[in-house]
Amino acid sequence: MDIRPLTVDAGGSKTFVVTVYSDASKTTLHPLAGYTAKMQVREKVGGVVFSELTSPSGGITINTTTSEITVVIPAADTASFKSKMVYDIKLTKADDTVYPVGGEITVVRTVTS
């Protein structure tokens, strides 16, 4: 799994794209046909789920041509995030499960009112 830290603005939507590779040297794209995706955001590993996104219409889009996953975390979800969160993405197919990316999320809040 690639570790990719994210920074999000509390109460703002966050979009990011992940390219999925079959090898550690990132030279071979992983074929994504037939996969579904799920992402969870939690305060800590095993903790309460603050956000859950899924494909194809729940915030995650899979592009099988480019082996890219586009994730959109809605503003309503980020508004409830604590200052530090964790996430990962799980890709599932009948005979395979892949965890291409995960990491910490730093949440930025406005200070001045």
Please state the structural category: mainly beta
Largest sheet: 6 strands, mixed
Number of domains as seen in the coordinates = 1
CATH superfamily: Immunoglobulins
CATH architecture: Sandwich
Name of the top-level CATH class: Mainly Beta
Total DSSP E strands: 9
How would the global form be characterised?
A: elongated
Kindly identify the CATH topology: Immunoglobulin-like
- Name the poorly predicted regions: none
Average the pLDDT over all residues and give the rounded result.
95
Query: How many H/I helices?
Result: 1
Order of helical and strand elements: EEEEEEEHEE
Radius of gyration: 14 Å
Percentage of residues in strands: over 45%
Query: How much helicity do the residues have?
Result: under 10%
Amino-to-carboxy terminus distance: 39 Å
